[in-house]
Prior knowledge:
By secondary structure, the protein is an alpha/beta fold. It contains nine helices and seven strands, in the order βαβαβαβαβαβαααβα. It has a single domain (about 15-275), classed as NAD(P)-binding Rossmann-like Domain (Rossmann fold), CATH 3.40.50.720. A seven-stranded parallel beta sheet has the order 3-2-1-4-5-6-7, with helices on both faces. Helix 3 packs parallel to helix 4 and helix 4 packs parallel to helix 5. The longest helix is centred in the middle third of the chain and has 28 residues, at about 110-135.
Amino acid sequence: MGARWGKSAMKSLKGMSVLVTGGGSGIGLGTARYCMERGARVTICGRREDKIQAAAAELGDACCGVAADVTLAADRQKLLEAAIHHGGQLDALINNAGNMYRGAITELDETALQEVFHTNVIAAMMLTGLCTPSLAQKEGAVVFVGSIHTRRAFPGASPYAATKAAVQGLTRVLAAELGEQRIRVNCLLPGAVFTEINQRAGLMDDETALQRLEGMSDLHALGRIGTTEEIAEAMAYLICAEWVTGAMIDIDGGLGLGITADPAINKSKESSEHE
């Protein structure tokens, strides 16, 4: 039964149990913090024990940190059990864990390509299937993380873009498949936000990554890159909105609009300014 007039049409995060993969940094950590600040109990995971435990300690007692590799079946089971033990139930799964792989189409390594698909697509599918019975008990939510790479074409990023296109297709199919169990499935497409994905792939250091992103500011309609908190706000909406499923939501400051400067208009504008 939907919300009646005068009452909120949104669930509250308070008391929810939320599982966030890739929760040790960036968007995952920001999402965990945002949900906890609003009363949720959050379980986060990452491959590095030291990093995930440091993140959990920073967030406090309402956070449970689990060292887990989502590409491994035993670790996925361990992660689900930890989330239910910590939160008493499972209300939402945030499939945020992901890796980057870049390269010219003529130079791709097949093993590396399979690995990025395993992490970004297959592991998320398998974890979602594992969590489905628990999510169904709470009429819960699944959120996948897509990418601006399916809105704008970045040469050399075909492996990563392909995984995110797969995730977006998967979102709609699972929204239809799991709707009977009242599980909502949606996908968030972040724009330029500082994370560690390129650094983990060994492509650049933190300083270079941040400079690269800030250099893209003018490509955004709103003139700046985003923050993890802004992405987390949208995550929370998709966790709590009871009549939204199968949606792709762009949170990108207008980067995906593909804004380009028109030289003729710019030249005319400059001429008028100097008259």
